[in-house]
Lipoprotein
Amino acid sequence: MKGKRNTAARLAAAMTIALAATACSNDGNAPALTDPQEMCNPKLVGYSQQVTVNGTDTYSCMVEFAKNADDTTKMDMKIVGISPDKTEWNATVTTVPAEGCVRFAGTDSTDNYRLSVEGTWTPPANGETYATVRAACRIERRGSFPALGRKLTFPFTDGWANTYVSGMDEVEYEGQKYSASMAVDSAMTYIARQLARDYEALELCFNQDGTLTVGLMGHGALQAEPWMTFKYWLDGNTVTVEIDDEQAAKVENDWFGEMYALWWEPLFAGSYGRNTLVLKFNQQRDYMSMLLCGHDFSAAMRMYSKGNGTRMADPRGSKWVKIAARAMNDDWIVTCKSEPLAN
């Protein structure tokens, strides 16, 4: 009985056939074909190559090729710039010489992703310094991240968040001292109560195509009301949410509202000009915990205390938010617990 070839092998074979079919034909006056070994010249590497991902997003990337130690018809390809966290994306690609360029295609898999790539490498024309790479990638999320393909629901109820204190046991406010952890726990409780006036829960859905759908569940609603859809990137149980400028403005406007402050504290950091928010997740028996930590969250609490935090329905909430904003630093961790996971 013939064994079944795995999906990656079939895909690689199909790509190789496609490349060969599109290479220049020999019509008796065969044109000079581009030598794939030129791809390994480090002096020809450009840092602004166009790489398209999943047919929708195009990034400016650094692309390098190196000789494959096991097969002279293949190259080891490295791409930097697809994701905002400077991750190196690698694939072993088959090369086919063509007139004026080299065509390539290949696949690779990691613990978090399945990658396929195809494209062309064109040597520099007269007067140009670097080669030109045009590549199209298909990236699918995979692996052991327990939230992948699931909906996580975080209800806006008392006790929805617990605080890990770092660096401060007490905080002083208007001449009185308060427990720092109690201040943040109380602020999160009152924030949940404020949100619960309009919504029951926050819903997160991590899709395999790399999109994170965020929704808000209304009272008595059968499904969540869509709020925004982001791109996300995985590193184990750490999720880097990518936020464009328009989305960042909406997050800040919806979260803070009109602010009574003379300064604005930036929330999102990132590289390659792309805003990011880092979240961490852990699975605890039948539920997931979401860890809010770092500068983005402590800054968000401080900015909230000067905006919507001043207009809470219960004035005690506004007080605790102000105290929490004074207590928090970038090392604090607030953990939110999801509803039980569906099987």
In short: The chain has five helices and 18 strands. The mean pLDDT is 86. The radius of gyration is 26 Å. The chain has two domains: 7-141, 151-337.
